[in-house]
Design a protein that fits this description.
Blueprint (H helix, E strand, L loop, with lengths): L18 H11 L8 E3 L1 H7 L3 E5 L9 H10 L3 H5 L2 E4 L3 H13 L3 E5 L5 H9 L3 E4 L4 H15 L2 E2 L6 H17 L5 E5 L4 H13 L4 E7 L4 H8 L26 H8 L2 E5 L1 H13 L11 H7 L9 E5 L6 H9 L4
Parallel strand pairs: 2-10, 3-4, 3-6, 4-5, 7-8, 7-10, 8-9
Antiparallel strand pairs: 1-2
Helix pairs in contact: 1-3, 1-8, 3-5, 3-8, 5-6, 8-9, 9-11, 12-13, 12-14
The chain binds pyridoxal-5'-phosphate.
The site of pyridoxal-5'-phosphate has 19 residues, from α9.
Length: 336
């Protein structure tokens, strides 16, 4: 399925994040964030006839890549802003990342989240010592509360994706992949707010312009896809999905990731819930990995034959934080 919404123009683009920003981020976060393994997948390579490698962000200390962006953003603050304390609204992994980084750096953090966030994610953040506020039924409600506390308590916001330092941090994944796999042809990236896909696209395309970067979302609430189709960020209805970490909007006043994704992504694929479940199942049964819905969409897109690969491919396995009961149920089901 080729999206018709991603129009290309030949003019030079001035992008809000550069390769130099990402290289500085890599130096800044080195030693505090893990360089994750890139492992060859025999089953997916055999299936596609192309060498497929999995980038295991599940191996970060918080079980997801978001530590890269949060750590880079927090380390980029001046001392005054940092010691005031940090705040963010998050559907889970970003909150976990801010809580972890804050604890590592000895700074207080408050995390606002909606009541749709799964309990395992809430408890993980609480265990990292952050203050938690559960507000409303949507990411937007949580965001409003974070903005209120930013004003009333003078806390410093750490955004989940729409921030140049956060994007630069996520982009360090692209540097690591290019070092390990210089003949990279395609990257499959889970796509929500676009910090991950935007950062990786800047890095890999700066180092090798021909690399295809494909964003993958779920059909149920694909915010960046809707925004690019509309030509500007739009409000979307949030729906429950197995890829819960891909939920939420891109922000109506988005100033970094919308431009990056519109200008740099070569395609966006959308998946059904059954296809995502199949990705989770394959990861568990064939690759021996516990992967959450959002982390499994790259594998799912391959299994659903929604992408034709040519050349070495990297699939970003973005996170592994899934409710164990849900995971067990999905893995036990027969393939559809
Ligand atoms: C946040 C997240 C994503 C999407 O990242 P964006 O920068 O918002 O596009 C993908 N996978 C997991 C596991 C996440 O936590």
């Amino acid at each position: 399925m080729k999206s018709e919404i991603l129009s290309r123009s030949t003019e030079e683009k001035v992008l809000p994040v550069t390769l130099a920003d990402i290289e500085r981020a890599a130096a800044r976060i080195a030693g505090r964030v893990r360089r994750t393994p890139l492992v060859y997948s025999g089953t997916l390579s055999e299936r596609t006839g192309q060498p497929v490698h999995l980038k295991l962000e599940t191996r970060q200390p918080i079980g997801a890549f978001k530590l890269r962006g949060a750590m880079n953003a927090i380390l980029s603050l001046d001392d005054a802003a940092r010691t005031c304390g940090l705040i963010t609204a998050s559907t889970g992994n970003h909150g976990r990342a801010v809580a972890y980084a804050a604890r590592e750096l000895g700074v207080p953090a408050t995390i606002c989240m909606s009541s749709l966030v799964p309990p395992n994610k809430v408890e993980a953040i609480r265990a990292l010592g952050a203050e938690i506020r559960v507000v409303g039924r949507s990411q937007d409600d949580a965001q409003v509360e974070a903005e209120r506390l930013t004003e009333s308590r003078g806390l410093t916001p750490i955004p989940p994706f729409d921030d140049a330092n956060v994007v630069a941090g996520q982009g360090t994944i692209g540097l690591e992949i290019m070092e390990a796999l210089p003949d990279l042809a395609t990257v499959l990236v889970p796509l929500s707010g676009g910090g991950l896909a935007g950062g990786i696209a800047v890095a890999v395309k700066a180092l090798k312009p021909g690399v295809r970067v494909v964003g993958i979302s779920m059909e149920r609430g694909a915010a960046m896809h809707a925004a690019i189709a509309a030509g500007k960020p739009v409000a979307i209805r949030e729906e429950e999905t197995l890829a819960d970490s891909l939920g939420g909007g891109v922000g109506l006043s988005n100033h970094v990731t919308f431009t990056l994704c519109r200008d740099l992504l070569d395609d966006i694929l959308l998946l059904t819930e059954d296809e995502i479940a199949e990705g989770i199942r394959h990861a568990a049964r064939q690759e021996d990995m516990t992967v959450e819905g959002a982390g499994a969409v790259g594998i799912a897109a391959i299994l659903a034959d929604k992408i034709a690969l040519s050349g070495p491919t990297a699939v970003i396995i973005s996170g592994g934080n899934i409710d164990p009961t849900l995971h067990q149920r999905i893995v036990a089901e027969a393939a559809t």
